[in-house]
Amino acid sequence: MRYRQLGDGPLVVSELSFGTWLTAAGGVAREQAIRCIHAALDLGITLFDTANQYGAGEAERVLGDALRGRARDRYLIATKLYFPVGDEPGHGLSATQIEKQLNRSLDRLGVEYVDLYQCHRYDKETPLGETLEALDRVTKAGKVRAIGFSEWTAEQIDAAAAIAGRRGLVPFSASQPQYSMLWRKPEAAVFAACARHGIGNLAFSPLAHGVLSGKYAPGEPPPADSRAANEQMNQFMETAGRHYRSRFLLEAVAQLRPVAAELSLSMTQMALAWVLRRPEVASAIIGATRPEQIAENMRAVGVTLSAETLEKIDAPLVGAIVRE
Q1: What's residue 197's pLDDT?
Q2: Which residues pair with 76 in a beta bridge?
Q3: Which of 293, 298, 300 is nearest to 36 (CA)?
Q4: For residues 306 and 156, what is the distance between their CA atoms, to the nearest angstrom?
Q5: DSSP string covering 51-73, please?
Q6: 54 is catalytic
Q7: Mean pLDDT throughout 72-91?
Q8: What's the N-to-C CA distance of the chain in angstroms?
Q9: What residues have CB less than 8 Å from 145, skipping those under 6 apart?
Q10: CA nearest to 62, candidates 82, 35, 101
Q11: From 54, 82, 122, 179, active-site residue
């Protein structure tokens, strides 16, 4: 494993991090999710990403149970708030919500602090200054080491940096955007905004919700053990900005097979290496239902893709890429 600094903040993260969005939230059996977390830790992954909303808190509980007994300095926990938790009516990034939801997350995780606390989305109903001051308080209280956000626009990032600078507040050091060969929106403005303010990126869905693994063939049903065949885990494949199982998209992705073969890489490994080629990306967040998948993903670390290879990747994807 290799490691990168996460922006100008205090965290150094593994180039691959482990996400608990679907699996630890109930997509696979609890024992299997814990085995995957243990495998990730044993293979050198240090950052584990979750959220209070995932499985109405279940993902945090599973992650906390899996890491209990392991040396606290061997892993980093990143969690989030914004969306309602279960059937709770409250949501957002108000000072009240930040204090309440952070304490609940710490309790479910069984830790005294989280390494990274993230705003899961931007809250248009709460003054940005209120959110930043509340995050500053919990950081200076020792409950949080660094703060971040997910899926904010460049304008929102600039505004937050300006307020934090004027008021002397703890600045953001992490962004978590969706980023993959097929979803390149962060390249338009978000990466530049993050670079301006010393913010590193944690890329989620680097495999485009599993499509870039190459396991889905156009016109054929998904493999029985795949995410697309699991009703608990496939629900976002058609709502995360595009239809990730469309025939057009799958046909384009299928043309990447010979490119990966030339590199002696799997489709998954090539897709992860493509994301990690960007200096703005500190880590790519992977998910897994089996420990062996994590071991396979590790081969993407340290891979350099030539300019020629990048051109070969882009050629069949013309028309399938979302850029803005």
Answers
A1: 98
A2: 47
A3: 293
A4: 34
A5: -TTGGGGHHHHHHHHHHTTS-GG
A6: yes
A7: 95
A8: 32
A9: 9, 10, 11, 113, 114, 115, 116, 139
A10: 35
A11: 54
CB 95 within 8 A of CB 129: no
313 or 241: whose pLDDT is higher?
A: 313
- 304 CB burial (10 A radius; 0-12, 13-18, 19+): exposed
Q: Give CA separation, 269 vs 8, 64, 273, 301, in Å.
A: 28, 28, 6, 8
Q: Which of 285, 291, 301, 296 is nearest to 38 (CA)?
A: 291
- Asked whether the predicted pLDDT for residue 189 surpasses 60, the reply is yes
Contacts of 257-261 with CB under 8 Å at 24 or more apart are 257/214, 259/309, 259/312, 259/313, 260/214
Q: How many CB atoms lie within 10 A of CB 305?
A: 17
Per-residue pLDDT averaged across 122-130, rounded?
98
Under a CB-based contact definition with an 8 Å cutoff, are residues 182 and 322 in contact? yes
Lowest mean pLDDT among 117-121, 193-197, 239-243, 289-293: 239-243
- What is 177-239 written as a DSSP string? -B-SSSB-GGGTTHHHHHHHTT-EEEEB-TTTTTGGGT---TTSPPPTTSGGG-TTTSTTTTT
- DSSP three-state, residue 318: coil
Structure tokens at 37: 């977390």
Q: What's the CA dihedral at 49, 53, 55, 59 to 10 degrees?
A: 30
CA-derived radius of gyration, the chain: 19
